[in-house]
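Appendix C reproduces, verbatim, an entry submitted by the partner laboratory led by Prof. M.T., so that reviewers can inspect both the input and the predicted structure.
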Amino acid sequence: MNPILKSIQITLNNTGHDCGDVDGLTGIKTAEALSKAILDKTISFSCKQHVDLKKSLVDATPTRRNIEDVYGVISYKDVGDRGAIKITNATKWRKHFTRIDVVATDDMTPIPLTVNKKIALNVLCAFAEIKLHNDTLPKDERWTPKRVDSYCPRHNRWDQRRPLSVHTWAAAIDIDPKTNGVKMDGDIPEWVIEILQSWAAVWGGDWRKYPDPMHFQWMR
């Protein structure tokens, strides 16, 4: 239970953004309510609640060591020798996921994503902030992603000798892989990267040995 999120849930319910139970948990109803509150500026980026929430989400982001404690325990078997896997506890596994739509501008077709329930708030709220920033820019300068991917059960780099990808837990997103591939300079604006990082994402573009600018993951 996150006490900072609990206080924000009280604010949401008191301002007409129904988030359901005040329980301090990052459920989908709270995620949707908070992202809408960000868009209509009920909650300011600079308010202490907002700043403290982001810090608490960063602190709560798991490492490889405790990822299953946070995002779910997986059972799987390897398929072939190219890094693909088959989930063997699929019915239970799917209960960890939810569907969300992300948008960055008013005239953009929403992109559906399957994400882990524990990061739905991070992703929806980050894209709400991105949309607000886009709204301040001239139309020809606005950032509009063409593709965003998330859930993909597999080993890192499609190599079964490596650990499972964070995409297996639907706790990572890839943005416009065609123009932001491994070791490319990429074309995601710095301000977009900074917003996603502020919502606890680790950016693959910062990796020295294998820079991956399309990749944002919620694992430290």
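Helices lie at 3-14, 28-39, 48-60, 67-71, 90-94, 120-135, 190-198. Additional entries are available on request from the coordinating office.
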